[in-house]
Every structure is written in structure tokens, then in C-alpha cells.
Amino acid sequence: MTERSVAQNAELALLLEVSSTPKPGNVDREREYDDLRFEHFMAGAVGARPGLERAAVGDAVGSAFEHAVEGMAGQSAGNTQFGALLVLTPLVAAAGDGDLTRGGVDSVVRGTTVADAASFYRAFEHVDVAVDDPPDDLESLDVRRGSDAIPELESRELTLFDVMESSADVDGVAAEWASEFDRVFSAGERLLDDSGPVADRASRAFFELLAAEPDTFVVTRQDRATAEEVQRRARAVLDGDEDATAFAEELVDRDVNPGTTADLVAGTLFVALERGLVV
Amino acid sequence: MTERSVAQNAELALLLEVSSTPKPGNVDREREYDDLRFEHFMAGAVGARPGLERAAVGDAVGSAFEHAVEGMAGQSAGNTQFGALLVLTPLVAAAGDGDLTRGGVDSVVRGTTVADAASFYRAFEHVDVAVDDPPDDLESLDVRRGSDAIPELESRELTLFDVMESSADVDGVAAEWASEFDRVFSAGERLLDDSGPVADRASRAFFELLAAEPDTFVVTRQDRATAEEVQRRARAVLDGDEDATAFAEELVDRDVNPGTTADLVAGTLFVALERGLVV
């Protein structure tokens, strides 16, 4: 066997994330949407790899992320893995630097610059991403403005870490950036200690993360009540009180997609792969 | 959208091949074996990419193939895509050279050397591949001898094309090498003209190839009668006289795996992607 590189493990994490099943409401091997199919996630992962390679060799996190998103968007379904790449890019940078730890990735994200923030905003020009309206005082920093927001970033001297920290309370990926990726590392360690096929372990990791906190993507696209219902029912699946497959079918039918939790699973798989998870 | 590179399309072809379903007897999104799972094919495709990149930039076909196989073998299930890589490598070399045509790939394979043949034999040392016993007069060239067979290759001045041509009547991949990859190009053109999700098109391509000729991997692992039965029943599925899913379940239960046909589908998908198939 040859060793996979850091970027290969990151790409594989994206592929294993979408391959694991069931993951209620998300595209997986057994469930897809007419306009967002399993094949789009395969192409998204393949396309993202060159950007992930840049992060692994120490390119700026923002520019590596933007490049990964641009490559990911090279398929016809639009946004497949924007959030997952936002989780993975700093983890890949830390791993490339030989320090894939909570402290290592915290140094990476706290070391981001205003230029990284500008790249992050430019990344929104490659693909439509569902986001909430910003508060009134932050309208000029609405990510949907793309590069038009860059002068404002520069005048306020906001780094990418600052931008993420400011939305940590409404976005589960930003919350990881602001808290040493603690949920991702904890879930990665549990996944490594788990047993059985990787696809099953990743599905369990998904349920555990979903049961622990409301999914912020569901809050954005539906509302907090729905996110809390999903959280409660994920808990019921783990407790054996609800059927995982029926729950998965229902969420797809209702177009309720706990995508932030899936993004965290991609990071979880990457941590586990880098720490020796055998596939 | 950014364009995928030749090597990215080859990797994506491997991923889309295993993602398409149903593909009776083969691992696909909905069926797997306990010791050969969907996740192993994801890791195999990711691992193969550096070797495919070498083929795309004009490295020797044999050494690029050996490198791809070595990377593919970097997962715990052994052989996932040896045959598919033997189809893809010369196609990737032709595409990298800007001439992905029957004539272009024929030039590539006829241009192989004794050194390419030696690399091909070395590739068998990275992974166990199910092959038939060779005829008595070719025992010294049994691929399972790996690099021990190289002096014999050299003394007979056999190129990789010679080696493949000599097994064209018993191996469906070798038959492509000896006939300008005609079945792959024809299937690729049909897949491009087809409509609907790529996963469905690839499944139809699989059934059409399977119905047209006995799968040589089934001949090797079972016998010719089984291969002919599988061919006949693939025809029945296409004619609407047999249920595809039930047939797929039955072949998995019987451990009958038309793997050569799956290898050709990987090539088919690559040709279609290079010619503009939208994913």
C-alpha cells in the first residue's frame, strides 16, 4: 500500500461523506434530489482537489478555499460542497503543516488575513450558496455581494477569522472556526474508535452530531423549530425509538437538508483518515 | 465552471462507474460484498489519480499504469480497479496527446515497449488479480510471476502490446487493446447520445455491453456457460423480459461478477466525459 497524501485524504473524505448512508435529508448513496444527484458530489470532490492541494502545501487558506470552490463548481448542480470545503481547508492546511490538532488548526484560522477574507467573498461568485440575510449593520458585508464587499472588508481590516467569528452563533461551520474545530475533532476521535464499514461509522457520526445541536442550514432554509424537530428526532433514532430510513425518506420529501451537519462529517472523516482510519 | 483535466476525468470515470446502478454482480451504490465495499472503490479511484496524471503528461504507459495500480491498491480490499486502469491508461495517454480517437489510442498501444511490458508484470506484485492459468507454452510468462517473468519478456522482445494481443481472445480488456478500443468508443458515443442522469446512462451502457459479448472475467472465475447465461439474461433485461434489480441481487448472491464489462464502462465514461458529457 502507498500512503495517501493530505489532499487525497481530503478528497476521499468528501467522497466517503456523500457515500455514507443513511444521512437524513442529505444526498447519499440511496437518496438524491432530481437536480442534485450523487454524481454531482463525485464531480464536486474531484474538482475540488487542486484547491485542497494548494492548502496542503501552505498556500493562503482563503485563496486555496476559493480555488477549491471554483473546481467544485465544475458540475451542473451548483453548490455541492461549499460548506464542507470551508471545514476542510483549514484542517488540510494544519495537516500539511504537520499539526492536525485543535491548537494547530486554531493557529491556522487565527492567522488568516484580510486577503483571505477577500478570497472567501470571491468564492461566493462561483456558486449560489443559501445564506441568511445579515443584520442591518452588516448589510455591506453580505456575502452575496461577493467581491463588491471587499473594499468594506479592507476598510474595517476584517480577517477571514473575524468574518467567521462574527457568524459563529448562526452558522455551524463558522462556529467550528471559532472554537478550535472541537466538534469535528471529537467526532473524528469517536469515529476512529468505532468499528465496522466506514460508511456506517460516518452515518453514526452524522446522527450523533445532528442530535447534539440544531443544524444551522435547516435554520437558514426552514426555521429554528424545524431544526429543533430534526435534532430531537435524530436523538430518537439513536435511542432506537424511530426508524432511520423512514426519517431519511421523510426529510428528503420535505426538502429538509441538514447540510451543515454533513459538512462537519466531511471534516470528521478527514481527521480520522489522517489519524489512521483504514479504508 | 472550470474544465476538468484529463486525469480528473479519468478519476471521475472510475467514480461514476461504481456509482451507477444497477450493474448486476458488481459493486455499485446499492450492492456491495462484505470484503469489497463501495468505499474501497472510492479510495481506489483517489489513489489511482497520480498514476493517471503521469499517463496524461506522456509518461510511459506501462510505468503510469503500474503507478496507478500501486496507488489504487492503497486500500484494504485489494483489487478494485486493475482492469479499469488497464482500459483507462492508454485512453488517458491518447487524450493527453490531444488525440482521443480509435487511431490515437491504437498508436499509443502499438507504441508500447518491452519496458512497458515489464512494468505491467510488476503491477501484479501490488495486488492479487484473478487470472486464468496460461497455456503450457506460455507458463514462463504467467502474469502471476510478476517481475520474475521480466527476463523472459526481454529475451523474447515482447512489448506490452504483444502481451495484450496474445490474450485478446480470452480477456475482454486485452481485446480492446488489440482492436482500437472499438467497443469502448462505440459505447461512449452511445452514452453521449443517451439522456438522463449519468448513473442511469452508465447502467444502460453496462447492460448493452454485457448483452453483446460474454464477460471474460466471469469465464475466468466461473466458466463459459455462466458467462453465456449472464449475457443472455442481460439481453432479457434490455428486452424488458427480466427485472434488472432482481438479476443484480441474484448475481451478487451467486458471487458472479462481470468485472470486465465494468472495466469497459469506466473507459466508456472517460470517452464521454472527454467529449463533453455534462455531469
From TrEMBL, chains A, B:
It holds the Pfam family CitG. InterPro entries: CitG (IPR002736). Gene3D superfamilies: Triphosphoribosyl-dephospho-CoA protein. This is Triphosphoribosyl-dephospho-CoA synthase. PANTHER family: CITG FAMILY PROTEIN. GO terms for molecular function: ATP binding; triphosphoribosyl-dephospho-CoA synthase activity.
